[in-house]
Every structure is written in structure tokens, then in C-alpha cells.
């Protein structure tokens, strides 16, 4: 989890630096293209091209496009509002995932999930403060990006029922490379060495941060691992303060606390036997992976 937190912090800072010189389409194209190259060893370990076969290409394409739009919005929001606000609003993602999973995947909406959703929505209103009439477009873009991420996660949960992990990641990146090729062609400028380093850092951080999270989940329960991710809010805010002299106002702090509290409540066990159900689900997913993985 230390690797996840460090790499996600690198992505946020490198993204802010890269957007000073590059269009977000170009940043995303470099990130996705390099990500595909970095994914190649995992494809080989999973059994080669056979591991990428799918009968749900439309679902992969839809998820890839939604995730792509969310990432574009996230990087663009970095140029408009403080880093801490971007990450705080990003943490509303579990709210949208819970709503969509309950609506379309048949997952149970528990009392704790309802409380988490209510707290998260209140937190959004505290941060954005629409009643003041001075809503920053960057806040709305960051919130829309979180909705896109939440929808992407709900679609991924559906895909995990039939697809391998490596196939899900591959098709997401492949769709993003294709989707961004034409816009990138029109906005392309050759990056300076410094911005090239930032773009490569984004690709490395964006790819291997998820590897670190997956490994953390292997060695510890989700109820231990996921609350540690909440440290991203103060860490990113601290980076914004140290590097860009950004200040966290009391409304952003209060809103972030409400959102994170809701996320923490959402991690409460479903009841007796829930740990057994989780272990059985993990076992089924592992059995669905190729034998060479």
C-alpha cells in the first residue's frame, strides 16, 4: 500500500506538470500506449494471446471509453483546482459504484451503504457549495470524472464474472489507445525532456500502482487495505501545499472527512459468514484465471 500511495502521488504531481505543456489527449495516449507495453510480460505469464480472447467486446469497449473519459476529466481538473480537491472528489467513486451495482448487478443495498451514499453526497455539497453561486468548473469536471470511474468499476465487476484480469486491463488500454489516436494526432507537440519524464512517470505510476494494490489485497483483508487509501487525501493536499502553495479550506477538509467516513462505513462486513463468502468469491475468480498465471 505504501507503493500504491507513493505511485498515485507521483501520478497526480506528474500529471499537473505534464499539463503545463501537453494537451490531456496526448498525455492519455502516451500513458495508454506505454501501459500496453508494460502489460506484455503479464500477458505472457497469463498464457499469451489466448488469455485475451473475449465474447464481450462491446462491454470492454464501453468500459474503456468511460474510463478514458474519466481519466481525461481527472487530468484536466488538475489544471483547474487544487490537488486535494481533485482527490477528495475522486473518493466519491465508491458511491456511484454502489448505486450502479445495486441497480444493474443485483448487489444488496445495505443500511451501511445507504448511510455511506448519503454522507458522500453531503460531502460533495460541502466541497462544491452550489448555494454560493461560485461553483468552479474544475470541481464539476472532477465530480463527473468520479462518476465515470464509478461506472467503469461497476462494469468491471460484471466483466470479472467471465473475463480474466489481464484481459480486462488489456482491452481497456487498447480501447483508450484507439480512442485517443485521432485527437492526439491533431494536438501533438514534441514534449521537452522534462515533460517526457513526467509522461513516463504517469505511465509507470498508473500501471504499477494497481499492481501494488492487487498485491496488498493478496496479503491483507480489504477492510485493512482500503482505509489506508484514505491517506491519499492528506498526502496529496500536502504535496499541493509544498509544491504549489495550495491551501485546503475548511469546507474541503470537512467534505473530504464526510466522504471518507462514508467509504469507511461501506467497508463494514455484511454479517455473519461474510468473510466466508468473500473467500469463496476470491477462489472462484482465481479458478477462472489461466493456469499459467
Provide a brief overview of the structure.
This protein has 293 residues and is an all-alpha fold. The protein has helices spanning 2-18, 24-45, 57-78, 83-90, 93-104, 111-128, 137-159, 165-187, 193-219, 222-228, 232-244, 250-266, 274-288.
Could you please describe the fold and organization of this structure?
It is a single chain. The longest helix has 27 residues, at 193-219. Helix content is 76%, strand content 0%. By secondary structure, it is mainly alpha-helical. It contains 13 helices and no strands.
Short key terms for the protein model shown above:
293 residues, mainly alpha
Give the N-terminus to C-terminus distance in angstroms: 22 Å
The domain tally reads: 1
Q: Strand portion, in percent?
A: under 5%
Q: Point out poorly predicted stretches.
A: 270-280
| General shape | globular
- Summarize the biggest pleated sheet: none
Number of helices: 13
Write the layout of secondary structure elements.
Layout: H1 2-18, H2 24-45, H3 57-78, H4 83-90, H5 93-104, H6 111-128, H7 137-159, H8 165-187, H9 193-219, H10 222-228, H11 232-244, H12 250-266, H13 274-288
Helix pairs in contact: 1-9, 1-11, 2-8, 2-9, 3-7, 3-8, 4-7, 4-11, 4-12, 5-6, 5-7, 6-12
